[in-house]
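Teaching soon. Got one?

===
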Amino acid sequence: MLSELAATAFLALSLRSIISLNAYSGYNKPPMFGDYEAQRHWQEVTVNLDAKSWYTNGTHNDLQYWGLDYPPLTAYHSYLVGLAAKTQNASFVSLHASRGIESKEHKSFMRLTVLAADLLIYLPAIWILSVAIDRTFQSNIKELLFLLLALYPGQMLIDNGHFQYNNISLGLAAVSIAAILGNKNYLAAFTFTLALNYKQMELYHALPFFSYLLGTTLSHKSFKSFAIELTAIASIVLTVFAILWLPWLHSIETASQVLHRLFPLGRGVFEDKVANVWCSINVIFKLRKHFQNHQMALICLGTTLLTVLPTNIILFWRRSKPMFLLTLFNTSAAFFLFSFQVHEKSILLVALPAVCLFQWWPKEMLWLLEVSVFSMIPLLKRDHLLIPSVASTVLFHLVFKCNYFKPNKEQMLENKLLNTTVAISEILMLSILIGSLAIKPSARYPDIWPLIISVVSCAHVFLFLVWGYVKQLMQCDRKLYNKIE
């Protein structure tokens, strides 16, 4: 097993290294460049300014130029990476003078920092999650789950291609899920609070953790046990928040400024072409012409809550490990479809719980993972990452669908409807991809292909959300839900 684990990790790091050789977000696109420059700029700001100034507009911190808009743990990470950058070459983080740096030396440094996060956090975390799923459900597929998560193209293309550090927040979330499965609720509270303080998008996963932990706490027969556990979990969460937010807690104004940076309502309901409901509706009904930002924010909040509360109420009353994983999937899909300020890469937050459901619905979850990569094609194409996107997805398809899950005739007859639906979907996505490359859009509709990809992907994710709700409401696999631990 150790040799298989090492081989998988080596393969995962090799693929990530190959993808790292390609372009990144904003390459050679002044004056703002892209996410690569945003991450570098945060290192510049955190290394050169005191913590109280990191989220505040000033002479040396122009918030209009990639102002820090992630929680404090991201800022601390940027600070540590910035120190390493300063040690290697001070020009990487020189205040003001380093803006837009694109040297080969700097690219190598930045790419290595992502690979380091993969090696030190993400890969160990997904192995921990794979083992936890295997032990909890006695499925004997931990090596397969690890391979699935390690080779998933979406995370590689966004972190090692486009350039971000989703591997850290996703890794922390993976450990949190593993802790829930292992009945280590205090550890789950600790690691998930860290994940939430690294990226606020982890709110996609927050309600299922809250519902499960609250339900577990209330299940104690004695008031003393209930009070002890509730106090312990609340203390862990509040202590982590207090420590991480300490530099900005000296005044309400400063703390409010950080919150304003984390939830900027002024940016609008969505950016670019993203595969959620609001972008799809906007094709025929221009939302920005009829609603102001604060109105759309309230609409998004109401719609999202209306969509996620039922699935979490079910979890609260019918608490089980499989139900927790399914609720995690449904909630993240609903947030992606209906919440405010959704980005293309937020689909990664749906992909993680999808892999957790793999042992029961492998065909459906592999389909979802492929759809998730397809939904990000406009972003990846814009970053000149189309070739690695297609190559990594084809490899993923060949490894899992054509090797591990090559159906026999009996299985094909049993799942005829599903197989036909998946086949039609894959043909549709492939046709759209080929069409977007072969047919140049007209001057009148320059974004027609990104819109088509977004709308089609949105329809898929919505279908999966309905599917997830059906699995909960109909309890089609009752044996899963009888394991209330």
User: Anything to note?
Assistant: DSSP finds 23 helices and no strands in the chain. The first helix runs from residue 2 to 20. The radius of gyration is 22 Å. Confidence is low (pLDDT under 50) at residues 481-485.
